Structures are given as C-alpha cells and as structure tokens.
C-alpha cells in the first residue's frame, strides 16, 4: 500500500556482517559461542545508531542509509586507513571522512523520498549478498561442531580411564596435599639464547629462583615450537601422536584436549580443585571442565580483540591487553586464598609480543635512536618486557610460598622459546633461495630452548635433570608425590620441515578480514 513504511532492516545486516565474516574465516580455531557477545553488541549498536539517526533525520529510510554508512566506517576503519596510508596522512583521511558524513546528512535531508528508498534497496541487496557466503559457512561449522563430536567422546573415555588410575595412587592425605601451580610464561627463552641472541644476562633472576629453592633446568627444550601443540602435550603428559592421529590437523580438538587434560582430570579424581585462569587467547581462552574459572566478564577474548582491532576503537587494543596481563599477575598473588588442595593453571601471554611493558611496567617506547634496524629494536623491547615479567614472577612466587598452608609445587615454564630478533628478515631471505631442512633446524633450535624451573618441596635435587622437557614434568610430579608409576619419555623436540607452509611453521592466530 502506498505510504505504508517498512522498518529498514539492512543496517543490522551491515552491523553483523563483520562478526559473521570473521567467524567464518576462523571457524577451525574458535568455538561458536565466542561470536555471540560481539553479535549482540553489533545488533545493539545498529539499533542505537538507527534510533539516533531517526531523531535528527526525521525519517526511517534516511536514517537507515546514514546509520549503515556510519556502521561500515566504524567496523572497517582500520582497513580503510591502511588502504589510504600510502597516499595521504591519517589526519587528512579523518578530515575527509568527516566531510563525507556531513555531506551525506545534507544530501539525505534534501533528497526525494523515491531516490532515498531506491538507494536503501540497493544497500539492502548488497548487504544480503555479502552475508550469504559467510553465513552459510558459519552455520555449517556450528552444525558440524554440534554433530561431529566423536573425537570428544573418545577423549572423555580416555580421561575417565586416567581418573580411575589416579584413584589407585597412594596419594597423600587431603590436609597435607600440596597446591600445584603450573604457570606458563609464553615465549620465555632459555638463558643461553638470551645471552647469545639478545645480549641479555638473565643469571640474576635465575640465581634468585635457586635461592628460593627452585631447580632451574638449564638445558630444557620444549617438545614443540608452538603454543597449541606444546600445551596439549605437556598437560596430557605425552606426545601428540599418542593423543590421536588427527589431532595435529584439528586445532579445535587440541584446544579441547587442553581444556580437558589428563593432568587436571587425574588431580580432580583425587580431590583437587582445578582452577583455570583465562588468558584471553583461543588456545587457553576457556575451560568448562575446571571447578573454577578465573576471569572478568568484561575481558575480551581473542576473537573480540581481532574484531575490535579493525574498528575505530582499534587503538585501545594494547591497553586492554596490558590490563589483562596485569590482572593475571594480580590474580596469581591472590589465588592461594582458595581453600583446599588446588591445581592452578595460568597461561600468561608474556614476554611474548606484542610489547606492552618496559622493565618498570610502563608502556614501552617503541622507537629507539640507537637501534640499527627492526631486529635490534625488537630485541630491546623483548628484553625490557622479560625483565618486568621477572619482577612480577618473583613477587608472585614469594606470595604463593609464604601464603600457603603447605609448601606448594610450582612449575614455571615456557611453552616455547623466542626466535632470533632478525628472524623475519632471515626467513624471507632464505625463502627466496629455497628453505632447507638444515636451515629450518638451525632457525628453530633457539625456538625450542625454554626457561623451565621447578619448586618441589621435599624432593631430592636429582629428581629433576637439566635436559627435562615439559612432557615429563607431571610424570615426575605424579610419581614422586602421589605414587604413580609413569615411565619417563625420551625428551624430543619436534620442529617443522622444509615441505611445510608458512602457516604451519608458526603458531596460528586468528586472522582478520
């Protein structure tokens, strides 16, 4: 009927497109639940913006066009800035955007109703067309994750068997059972690598740990060169082939095996509480298996950070990540207040880049006149961040030890080491001439050399050896403290081969548009 107005729906399609699109291209790395909150926020933002636009444009059709443009600018702001960066300065780009918005308001106020509705129809068709492919991909992924859970069921049976084994351990009385802390310091390199590649002497911190009663494994290496593989291996006390044939290719299954791991399962079966500290990264972003999840409801997960990084608010990402790491440090200083035997797992994405702290905990100065190139600057930033981590970890360790009713077990461990500062330049140069297994072995030899320290009260010094790798950490702990009979595995470090792609050579992170 002429004159009857239909409520414009397409601003909501424009708003949800970035969320659905991001999920569709990262479906193998995230669970469906992670995009529900940003989806709700996107719809709410579209509704508020549409309502406000209606107030000053006095017409729903005009308001829909204006709000759609504003939403597109907001969600794709960083890609647009990157696109124009080579031609004009960002300040000029912002000025141009402002002029476009003001001009659009002027045009919409003067445009005829027929023209406005025709433009609205074009935007609506375009928005629907954009959403078709990512929506189908996202829906198929969600359905697949709900139906194809055979691997998860099989793993549940393995955990049940592990739990029954744990119940037969000699164990220790609950009143004397030690709290266990497994603290992962992401990308913390071994002291010889720090000295050789980063010109930094870490002996002062290592000596301070030794003085507190820690054993520092000076020749320790990680079993894998990337976080996902490394943590899946160490938390399940085995190499990846033993965890399932397809697990290396299935990141979601590996995340599941980190969330529901053998170590926590065994300890839960003998009366421990599993305390899980969310890291904000997809590898250790959640655990519905834990007795207690430590997190703040307003903290962003990795999916939300990647989404936000593309928007006009992308400049605040580092502040949010700094706050997340600081909260983890503070939380570790308070977690010993939880009563009863507990297994605390914390994955702190630091000293791993991005570089958020200097050695005093302030925001770092990225530029440095004395730096010869990007490699030198990265080395300086990494070392400063590592020094700050040392200070916080030292305080955390003191707080845990002095504040515990019983001497606790503490494992401070890196999931992998650090590349050399000039790694990116070397890697690109080597790719041009052809990668060889010998070259890759050399590059990744530093990557697997890790910081690894153990506080094991009452244990003899010879219990831990210099060359121990993470796969044997809890085998030793369970054997000594709980009477388990795990055989120690051969300490092996696996690195990529020349036939693997660039994606396979490095840890996976969520990709933007």
How is this fold's topology laid out?
Elements: H1 10-25, H2 36-57, H3 60-75, H4 77-84, H5 90-110, H6 113-147, H7 150-167, E1 180-185, H8 191-198, H9 203-212, E2 215-216, H10 227-234, H11 251-259, H12 262-269, E3 273-277, E4 292-294, H13 302-309, H14 317-334, E5 342-348, H15 374-403, E6 409-413, H16 423-433, H17 437-447, E7 452-455, H18 473-482, H19 502-505
Parallel strand pairs: 1-5, 1-6, 3-4, 3-5
Antiparallel strand pairs: 2-7, 6-7
Mean pLDDT, rounded to whole units? 84
Strand tally: 7
Radius of gyration using CA atoms only: 26 Å
Helix and strand pattern: HHHHHHHEHHEHHHEEHHEHEHHEHH
Number of helices: 19
* Distance linking N and C termini: 41 Å
Strand order of the largest sheet: 2-7-6-1-5-3-4
Kindly state the percentage of residues in helix. Answer: 40-55%
How big a fraction of the residues is strand? 5-15%
Largest sheet: 7 strands, mixed
Outline the low-pLDDT stretches: 1-5, 499-513
General form: elongated
Q: What structural class do the secondary elements suggest?
A: alpha/beta
């Amino acid at each position: 009927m002429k004159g009857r107005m239909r409520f414009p729906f397409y601003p909501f399609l424009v708003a949800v497109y970035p969320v659905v699109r991001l999920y569709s291209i990262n479906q193998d790395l995230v669970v469906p639940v992670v995009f529900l909150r940003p989806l709700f926020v996107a719809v709410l933002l579209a509704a508020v913006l549409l309502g406000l636009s209606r107030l000053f444009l006095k017409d729903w059709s005009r308001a829909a066009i204006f709000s759609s443009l504003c939403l597109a600018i907001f969600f794709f702001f960083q890609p647009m800035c990157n696109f124009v960066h080579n031609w004009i300065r960002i300040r000029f780009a912002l000025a141009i955007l402002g002029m476009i918005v003001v001009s659009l308001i002027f045009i919409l106020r003067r445009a005829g109703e027929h023209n406005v509705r025709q433009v609205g129809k074009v935007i609506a068709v375009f928005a629907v067309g954009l959403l078709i492919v990512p929506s189908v991909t996202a829906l198929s992924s969600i359905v697949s994750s709900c139906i194809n859970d055979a691997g998860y069921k099989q793993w549940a049976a393995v955990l049940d068997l592990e739990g029954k084994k744990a119940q037969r351990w000699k164990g220790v009385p609950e009143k004397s059972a030690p709290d266990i802390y497994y603290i992962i310091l992401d990308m913390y390199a071994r002291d010889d690598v720090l000295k050789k590649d980063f010109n930094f002497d870490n002996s002062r911190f290592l000596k301070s740990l030794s003085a507190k009663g820690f054993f520092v494994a000076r020749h320790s290496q990680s079993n894998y060169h990337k976080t996902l593989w490394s943590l899946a291996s160490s938390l399940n006390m085995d190499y990846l082939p033993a965890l399932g044939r397809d697990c290396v290719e299935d990141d979601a299954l590996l995340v599941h095996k980190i969330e529901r791991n053998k170590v926590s399962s065994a300890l839960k079966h003998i009366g421990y509480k599993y305390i899980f500290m969310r890291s904000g990264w997809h590898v250790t972003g959640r655990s519905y298996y834990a007795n207690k999840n430590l997190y703040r409801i307003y903290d962003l997960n990795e999916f939300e950070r990647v989404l936000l990084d593309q928007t006009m608010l992308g400049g605040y990402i580092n502040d949010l990540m700094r706050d997340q790491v600081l909260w983890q440090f503070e939380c570790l200083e308070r977690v010993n207040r939880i009563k009863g035997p507990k297994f605390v797992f914390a994955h702190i994405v630091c000293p791993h880049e991005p570089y958020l702290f200097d050695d005093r905990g302030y925001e770092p100065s990225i530029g440095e006149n004395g730096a010869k190139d990007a490699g030198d600057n990265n080395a300086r930033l990494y070392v400063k961040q590592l020094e700050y981590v040392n200070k916080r970890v030292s305080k955390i360790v003191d707080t845990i030890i002095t504040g515990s009713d019983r001497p606790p077990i503490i494992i401070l461990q890196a999931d992998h080491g650090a590349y050399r500062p000039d790694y990116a330049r070397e890697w690109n140069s080597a790719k041009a001439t052809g990668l060889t297994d010998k070259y890759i072995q050399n590059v990744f030899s530093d990557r697997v050399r890790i910081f690894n320290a153990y506080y094991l009260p009452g244990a003899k010094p010879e219990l831990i050896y210099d060359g121990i790798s993470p796969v044997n950490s809890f085998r030793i702990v369970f054997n000594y403290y709980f009477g388990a009979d795990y055989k120690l595995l051969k300490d092996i470090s696996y690195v990529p081969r020349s036939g693997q792609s660039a994606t396979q050579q490095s840890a996976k992170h969520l990709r933007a548009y």
